[in-house]
Amino acid sequence: MNRLPSLFVSHGAPTFAIEPAQAGPLLTRLGQQLPRPRAVLVLSPHWVTRGVRVAATAHPETIHDFGGFPAELYRIQYPAPGAPEVARRAVALLQAAGWPAAEDPQRGLDHGAWVPVRHLFPDASVPVLQVSMPHDLDPAGAVRLGRALAPLAAEGVLILGSGSITHNLYEFRQQVEAPGAAYAQAFVDWARGAVTRHDEAALVDYLRVAPHGQRAHPTPDHYLPLPFAFGAAQADAPVRVIDGGMTYGTLAMDAYVFGEATEAALA
């Protein structure tokens, strides 16, 4: 079986589920052209635990873990099956790498998982499971976490880090427009350069070396899925940048595809 790439996807606001804008159709096209995965394993910032948990649910529920959005969002169901056997394998890999990991038999899919995966695989036929984000995870740890799970990519599992390439919720809620977009675009440009150069040191030290790193990510949770996806890829993997545009003035929606399947799938 060919090794699958790993992905970083910006899931933006929950309204991405009903407002696909520029990014949604690009993810759907990617899902059509990549080799069909055995399962999708998602790291989302919306499931944070002590240690690491891997969802072993056979039929995960669609979790609507947000408030104050249009009623249409709460009616959406994404009935993808789970993948308990992949969960067991993931836990074994994590434990072998020194992570305190265990299965969670009840966890469903939060919006950091089902919203982007719904664009990738609209028919919900590909099994989906989540790995939790440890509460004390830092960028270097996110790279290690990705590397611990990387063998799954050679076993037909699509490893997906779901976050946002910029994520300043204060400015999103205040609807900051053009003045905020310049700083957000500067961070986007830096991130594109860092991933295409395979610059692990920069990705780990983003708060110090990236322009407007603290403003782009007042908290690290939506950034950490990026070094996670980077760590899950092979060191010399080609990188494809998917330009998802900018929503709400400051929420960038880029995605990155790390892996040998990228060039063939997207040619």
TrEMBL record:
Domain of life from the UniProt record: Bacteria
Domain Extradiol ring-cleavage dioxygenase class III enzyme subunit B: 32-258
Any one GO molecular-function label of the UniProt entry: dioxygenase activity
Transmembrane segments: none
Entries under Pfam families matching the protein: LigB
Entry cofactors: Zn(2+)
Keyword set, alphabetical order: Dioxygenase, Metal-binding, Oxidoreductase, Zinc
Record-stated family: Belongs to the DODA-type extradiol aromatic ring-opening dioxygenase family.
Protein known as: Dioxygenase
Organism: Ramlibacter aquaticus
